[in-house]
Write a structure and sequence with these properties.
This protein has a two-stranded antiparallel ribbon. The protein is flat, with a radius of gyration of 21 Å. The protein is mainly α. Helices cover 67% and strands 1% of the residues. The chain is built from eight helices and two strands. 36% of the residues are buried.
């Protein structure tokens, strides 16, 4: 059997880290939606006497402890990814720093998770827990994509106004996620029967969320038409089309869950959908630029031939 080089492991490890961060969103949703938020009532221990769940804690303890275990697994993957980035030959500083940043987010999740338990599931802290997951998804996605790129300056594949439109779409996508977190904090799924909500009117916040979703879909459709009009690379057009499909599916789930009084299964799919919309958004940004390998000794392009640099991502 041929030996697998350590340097070849970085890309699959980066992908595993991305998938694990998305999975953490799903298991975190399961904790909240099954009212298992205080299944382990203390932190870092599960009980005052035990680091693991006990039979007396029942299924709620198992669900909450399972989420904590996934966090540990995620930390192991992040550490392995960082080591793989260090061992890569030649070593690339960009990959090392991205893997380090993603790895440092894991203990950050643990700290926020502990504060969440100690504050009896304060909705604002719970929301911060979710938003950090979105940030880690962005970092691990960037790491995964950068493993197949070089370190030369990014070059745009479309005109700058189109890149600005895509950036605006990404900003609105992030805003949809943030307001969605606030909606969740005002709704009934608190993670525990005695946990407080944020006190905001769910109908008002949900309407603001829906308005942002409509704006996001409108911008995405406009971007898709604009890319087709200028004959942008097919990969960019497909990425914009995929974003629209994911947004429409997510919007349909959100519409149905609202008018069916937030059944836990649909809410769980909606939280997974939020992560997928975010990944699809990042995919669009990545498809609008390229970053070739930096070759030593190659002649520098003349000023007239130098393309306008794309924003660095």
């Amino acid at each position: 059997m041929p030996r697998v080089s350590k340097t070849t492991l970085l890309r699959p490890l980066a992908l595993a880290s991305l998938i694990a961060n998305i999975a953490l969103v799903v298991t975190g949703a399961a904790v909240r939606l099954t009212s298992s938020g205080l299944g382990c009532p203390t932190w870092p221990k599960c009980t005052d006497e035990s680091y693991v769940t006990t039979p007396e804690m029942g299924v709620y303890g198992i669900i909450e402890f399972g989420n904590r275990v996934l966090g540990i697994v995620l930390g192991v993957i992040a550490l392995a990814t960082f080591i793989a980035a260090l061992l890569r030959k030649p070593r690339r500083r960009s990959l090392v720093m991205l893997s380090l940043a993603a790895g440092l987010g894991i203990p950050g999740q643990g700290v926020i998770g502990g504060i969440t338990v100690l504050t009896n599931l304060n909705p604002w802290v719970v929301g911060l827990h979710f938003l950090l997951s979105m940030a880690l998804i962005a970092l691990t996605y960037a790491l995964w994509r950068r493993t197949e790129e070089g370190d030369a300056p990014a070059r745009p594949l479309v005109a700058r106004p189109l890149y600005h439109l895509a950036a605006l779409t990404a900003v609105v996508s992030a805003a949809v996620i943030v307001v969605g977190v606030i909606v969740t904090g005002s709704g009934p799924h608190a993670g525990d029967a005695d946990a407080k909500r944020n006190g905001l009117d769910p109908a008002t916040i949900s309407q603001a969320h829906a308005d942002l979703v409509m704006l996001l879909i409108g911008l995405s459709v406009a971007l898709w038409f604009a890319l087709r009009a200028v004959h942008a690379p097919a990969t960019a057009i497909r990425a914009a089309g995929l974003l629209i499909v994911v947004e429409l599916a997510q919007g349909l789930i959100g519409f149905v869950q609202y008018f069916t009084h937030l059944p836990v299964v649909l809410v769980g799919f909606h939280l997974l959908g939020a992560a997928l919309v975010w990944v699809a958004t990042l995919n669009v940004l990545w498809r609008l630029r390229e970053r070739p390998a930096q070759t030593e000794g190659s002649p520098s392009p003349s000023p007239a031939a130098t393309p306008e640099p794309a924003p660095a991502i």
